[in-house]
Design goal:
It is a single chain. The chain is α/β, with parallel strands linked by helices. It has a domain of 201 residues: 3-Layer(aba) Sandwich (Rossmann fold). It is built from 16 helices and 13 strands. The strands form three sheets. A six-stranded mixed beta sheet has the order 4-5-13-10-11-12, with helices on both faces. It is globular. The structure holds pyridoxal-5'-phosphate and zinc ion. The site of zinc ion has 8 residues, from loops. Belongs to the threonine synthase family. Keywords: Lyase, Pyridoxal phosphate.
Length: 418
Amino acid sequence: MADPQQLRCRECGAVYAAGPIYVCEKCFGPLEAIYDYEALARQPLRRVIESGPPSIWRYEPLLPVNRVPEIDLSPGFTPLMRAARLGRALGLSSLYIKNDTMNPTWSFKDRVVAVAMAAALRFEYEVAACASTGNLANAVAAHAARAGLRACVFIPKGLEQGKILATAAYRPTLVEVEGTYDDVNRLCAEIAEEYRWAFVNVNLRPYYSEGGKTLGFEVAEQLGWRAPDHIVVPIASGSLLVKIHKGLSELVKVGLLDGVSTRVHGAQAAGCAPVAAAFAEHSEEIRPVKPNTIARSLAIGTPADGRYVLRVTRETGGVIAAATDEEIVAGIHLLAETEGIFTETAGGVTIAVLRALAERGTFGRDEVVVAYVTGQGLKTLEAVASTVAAPVAIRPTLRDFERHVLDLVAAPRDQVHA
Ligand SMILES: *Cc1c(COP(=O)(O)O)cnc(C)c1O
Ligand SMILES: [Zn+2]
């Protein structure tokens, strides 16, 4: 399949030749890749996809770059897991977890970076870079290593050790900036003006963001080519939420789904909830906030795609809600205890909001609900450190075992697990 040759402005429709450009010269709107959906609808697309690799690249015809086999880390095609125990706890009979902790660098960011990295090669960059809340730096460092590019990744001060060390392992140039993510992002936009570097989420954003569509494609395919009734998606810049919905809509355009009536719900941390606030106030305008939350991967105070998030959630009949730090930690434990999946704080946000919406009666009992769990718990161990029990310490004797352990194991688990 040929690489799409053109980009179009989301706001005014102006068309540009494909390249490392990201804002419309006429109106400063964001640019997006153009696809020929009618031509795609005439192809045996379902067969092409189903016989493709078990990664995001099975959807290559609907991505803005081709797979480059030599640099592929094979992100995506992660499990869609039926969540019967968590569903029972929340009163839902058809709940699924999209387990995107199972990616090469343990978060959904591998999807967007894989697409951006293929674009970086196509446009012959030598340095890959990003402004990151943590997971993006990790993914860029890994993919750049695999692609043989230099990496320079920028993070705000105060990130979790797990994210810093997991990123540093690939030996990128790792830069900690005094300030918030929004400061980091502003700096990176300035650097991108001066230096010809592939900032995956700045000048390559039209390519990067399209990778998020694969989280829509996969869920539809894994449900047997049908769209869920509800999805719950965490919001940082808002790109992921918008692109999952775009992915589902594209499957209708190419004839792989009959229709989509999915209600798209957004999840933010209460300590950084500018989109949830605008939603609650029925406002179009997103007021910047200064983040203060344990969900650092979602801590963006000026979300670039916030306006589009509001549009998608409102048009689909979804809601945007926020979770406190306490609820986030409870969400992490609830998912771990009921389903055996350990998520980072962003996943805790998703589960906390899923729970709140279930309690509000947003979902019908038998509707198909998919919650997106986008990152791995080992990266944010700090979040659970004070809410887990220390190991029971014993001497290596049967007597100690019987005295200190047996009763603990025999005790009934609480009703969540019944
Ligand atoms: C980046 C990130 C998101 C959300 O990303 P958007 O900027 O909204 O596209 C969600 N979960 C995790 C774990 C992330 O790292
Ligand atoms: Zn424009």
